[in-house]
């Protein structure tokens, strides 16, 4: 029966060419959407590595003329006073690169005997505790670190996995960063500070004493109690204006920033999903139309097949089978094109997402086609041979 | 053996009821070549459809090859049609997208049979109707007579006991019609196949063993 189906559809190849093209196009679009969506879903599901809810980000402007020791004293006083505000749980200063701020500070070289490119964050001793970051190994910065021979650094899990994949622990390892040797004192699990969809990248946290810019830390992150975030903003603003004698204080909600940072992926994904949805509806309607027309044209053939011994199930299988043969042909050609992406590594996305995308697109199209073919085919199966054989 | 007892068939719409067959009794012994004649609308095709199990009688019983087929369900009827019956239609009903040999194979697709065996039987059937040289042609490359010979090959490929032919020469000129009748007569003689043929052509009917005439759904001779 399968040979018969292939033969019949091959002989009808001109009639079915549009359907074939429609399936091929739908597959390519769906494959793209699924691969992109699955890849980003995986990224999204990987933890950020820090808390964003009930968190406020703050930028202040410290007088440039102020002495560095006075700056340190001012920063300590600001932190102490903020902690006394109602609803505030913790606070920390940080350098210029803040989570979801859109900035990146990177450095790279082969001083360590291998090519190592990393991104940087300058962070205080309170940074990990304020953001509720979890350490997989070692510890965060502590008081007295500044007296160590090598300036300490904390790295993320991707740093460990990429640069020292065979090492069980990299704590106490000396790592050269910008021609200066540093000692790794801790490893945090994750740190995705650009968006939920960020690709894992080696990251290094440097303490304030390694701040080679000479600029004081002028950003803060404040953790509040649940439900107290909005209320904390006004007293926080007043406190900071008083402390810095400067009204140039900007406060933002870190959770809102996170959502905003996700938009460059979420919006195209939503648009692509809507387009795919319309495409699938179009295919479904097209199939209905094609099948109803074909069945009307082939009523005598249906009667003939039934007269020759075809059961209603065999007639249904015949029409569903015919559509599936064209569909599978379109999917095979589409798959041939699709597998070139992972095989030739044309995009910087791991191959498994393309293979999953191929599988998901094939499954979706086959399901839709089978469902759409089933209704007209069952209608065809109900045709009475005595009636249709005498229509011509 | 075909045995129809008190077979009636009526078609009902919202307002009227049309009686196509009225308490018809007919017995066709194995190996007989029977023709049915009558004016248009007298119930000839309805009778053939009921014998071919593609229509059900409103009343009465049908026994084919010793089996009370009136009580058969859908799949059993389909199997019976496939194994015991062969159909020939006035308008051939060939599938234009299939080659001649693939058209002939059609009834065998609904049997458990390998592709090679199917092909062998189809070529045998084409040989029997003298069309083996046209096996790979398509129906639109054939004349009317050749198309009907393909339809006959398709009807006999499954070695049925009964062939039901609905005006098999109706669309053909007298020469081609004569050729078709020769083939049907040979099938009846050589293979012992029972043939029931509906025809409007008195000359063709005279070539069969027996003639049954219908008028207004009743048997008149």
TrEMBL record, chain A:
UniProt keyword terms in alphabetical order: Cell membrane, Membrane, Transmembrane, Transmembrane helix
Location(s), subcellular: Cell membrane
Record has Acetylation as a keyword: no
UniProt keyword annotation of Chaperone present: no
All residue ranges annotated as the ABC3 transporter permease C-terminal domain in the record: 274-385
Family stated for the protein in its record: Belongs to the ABC-4 integral membrane protein family.
Name of the protein in question: FtsX-like permease family protein
Species of provenance: Neolewinella maritima
Automatic annotation (TrEMBL), chain B:
A Pfam family: ABC_tran
Protein source organism: Neolewinella maritima
Protein name: ABC transporter ATP-binding protein YknY
ABC transporter domain: residues covered: 2-220
Presence of keyword Hydrolase: yes
Domain of life: Bacteria
Matching Gene3D superfamilies: P-loop containing nucleotide triphosphate hydrolases
Keyword entries, A-Z: ATP-binding, Hydrolase, Nucleotide-binding, Translocase, Transport
Enzyme class: hydrolase
An example Gene Ontology molecular-function term: ATP binding
Its EC number(s): 3.6.3.-
Entry-linked PANTHER family: ABC TRANSPORTER ATP-BINDING PROTEIN MG467-RELATED (PTHR42798:SF2), LIPOPROTEIN-RELEASING SYSTEM ATP-BINDING PROTEIN LOLD (PTHR42798)
InterPro entries: AAA+_ATPase, ABC_transporter-like_ATP-bd, ABC_transporter-like_CS, MacB-like_ATP-bd, P-loop_NTPase
Native organism taxonomy: Bacteria, Pseudomonadati, Bacteroidota, Saprospiria, Saprospirales
